[in-house]
Amino acid sequence: MKTIRRMVHREVLAAVALVTLGFLALFFFFDLIDELRSVARMPDTYPLSQAVLYVLLGMPTHLYELLPITVLIGTIFVMARFAQSSEFTILRTSGLGPGRALSMLLLLGSVFVVLTFALGDYVAPASDRAAQVVKSKGLARLTTGGTGAWLKERQGEDSVAVNIRSIRSDGLMEDVRIYRFDRESRLASRVLAQSATVAPQGDAWVLRQVQSDTFVRGAGGETQRAERLELTELRWATGITADMVSAAVLQPDRMATVDLFQYVRHLEANGQSAQRYEIEFWRKVFYPLSCLVMVVLALPFAYLHFRAGSTTGYVFGGVMAGISFFLLNNVFGFAGTLQNWSPWLTAAAPGLIYSIASLAAFGWLVLRR
Fold first, then answer.
1. Average pLDDT for runs of 10 along the chain of length 369
2. Among 44, 162, 205, 278, which is 20 to 30 Å from 323 by CA?
3. Integer angstrom CA distances of residue 349 from 159, 169, 342
4. Global pTM?
5. Does residue 192 contact residue 205 with C-beta atoms inside 8 Å?
């Protein structure tokens, strides 16, 4: 049985590696074509070599996104080829029962689960940050939309809203605005700073070239006057860390699971809606497990009887089923955000539906045979 397991695992790994390389080559080509427009606009500050490096640093993210679907394609191809050449029939007569076949593929799928988790939580976020540094060196700065990045924090009875217009490649935040509101939601003070950095201890920001306006109110609550201070440097105590700033800049699906969890807690502690980030957190948790769903979805193809030349159609059908899984996953994510569904159930539902369907198909084929 060890010999059979090694043979099946070797064939599946080779097929998955080949399919993955093909998809990555396509993504590299399309991403490089897209970056050539920036190279043409700024050939002196953003040369072709820098664009190639930026695209290469984006490959781990593509690998993380592609791995479940390439696992499905590679496994279906191997299982269908085994069925067509009657190799799987021989393996079944050699003692490879349905339970052993399922456990064999689940063991291999567990390896892909660990690999996908490592890519999504460690390799891809680090490569994304490095890619942003590479690109921002050529483009001078990284902007975060028309109004910049917004963060909110509660300090005692007051609430603070922070706006960061752009972030440089070295982590320097530019055009920082800090608005403090009292418990009655009235503007109490405003701080404008040309730049800011997070202190090494992580418990404060160091603001530079600061203009601070404090609004003094009368007994009736109306604003009587504004006191202005201009400082070269100001240390502002805050619990907003560099990771939270990065979370406001990065897309939720590009963040590590731990960073997403901490950001969700920060939003909830400050009375902000965290539904979108909660769904993304649970999707990050369940997404690696989709590799197990893919291998289970591929196993029934080994129990089909193929005529000569009919393998391609079944493989294409399996690929369409895998693509529909990812489409359903995205649809559930958007619907869960709009309808305020339970985040963990929204993220787990597509995997549960396809797992039940694939196990039902597997059981029906085994019983029918």
1. 85 94 94 88 80 92 91 90 82 80 91 94 84 66 62 85 78 86 86 89 87 80 75 89 68 73 77 77 88 87 68 75 81 81 86 83 69
2. 278
3. 37, 39, 10
4. 0.74
5. no
